[in-house]
Amino acid sequence: MLPMVTDQTRRTLLKAALFGAAAPVMPFGCASTISREPALIGCSIIGRDKFAAVVADEHGMPITTLPIPERGHGVATNPQGHAVVFGRRPGTFFMVFDYRSEQMIKLQLAKPNRHFYGHGVYSHDGTLLFATEGERGTSRGIIGVYDVQKQYQKIDEVTGFGLGPHEVIMMPDGALAIGVGGVHTNGREPLNLDNMAPSLSYLSQYGELLDQVSLPDHKLSIRHLAHDGAETVLCGQQYRGEPDEYPALISMHTRGGEMQDLQAEPEEWARFNHYVASIAATDEWILATSPPGSCYGIWSKSTGKLVELNALPDASGVVIYGDEFRVSSGAGKVVEQRPLESKKSFSSGIQWDNHWSRII
């Protein structure tokens, strides 16, 4: 039997929604009283079966927190001051709040036959939210379209691009790029590893399929994405093949072209333990993290070659901030790094989960 959203889960989520509608997000207990500007938002683990979204300053130091009912994953923000946190796949909710006023806006529950895949993105003007969703029982991929100005009412669904979409990003030209995992799952259990069909798919905001490419090895499930500020997309993969094989886990692509693997030695790819989580890129550098590998790597975008491989316990989120990378860790570490120039790290006191989102 496929797992469903249980009555107890729904009661928990609805209770959280009612609480959020009546009360502001409470300030983080140990946050500094010095006024700091929100710059980064990520999910965190705060105790056994206790989770939160954390608003932090530019150095990853916490300013405020918002309890969330289940483990979170990706976060998206818009210019109007909204942040949306998505439940970890198969997610039962997304939660929207105002990171400036610290007020809850909406808790959206998944329908009983649907789930969220943990990611979403706003349109450039912040008026639409696009969320990766799946149909329980088939894993049919769906992009749900929500109208921000209508209290996040769902106004459209886009499908027909494959099974198991994970991360969706907005390209500078307004197109959507989707990492399609190609995996049919029961909860988190894969069911079709022998015939999975991952792809990198590009859609217009109206659902037109603009381009779709795949990797030669169909056991490389495309999951996490970033772009370089222009036309190049970076794809992070999860390898679902033989445990003693270590293929390239990151590829570059520009619409109309072919996939190009980034380069590293097999023993270096082995450090990533078959999984790439967060990716960030500039026109010069690419940084990718691996929580199970407790490491992150930096590649030269021009050569495609690995230039640094660094240990970091439970390496999690990464964003570009100015001319630096900011990297988070499930062990509470934050790293600020300029490739080949400087690196410093410190403790944030937060057990950061997989991803960070920069407030723009």
TrEMBL record:
This is DUF1513 domain-containing protein. It comes from the Bacteria. The lineage of its organism: Bacteria, Pseudomonadati, Pseudomonadota, Gammaproteobacteria, Vibrionales. Pfam families: DUF1513 (PF07433). InterPro entries: Quino_amine_DH_bsu, UCP028101.
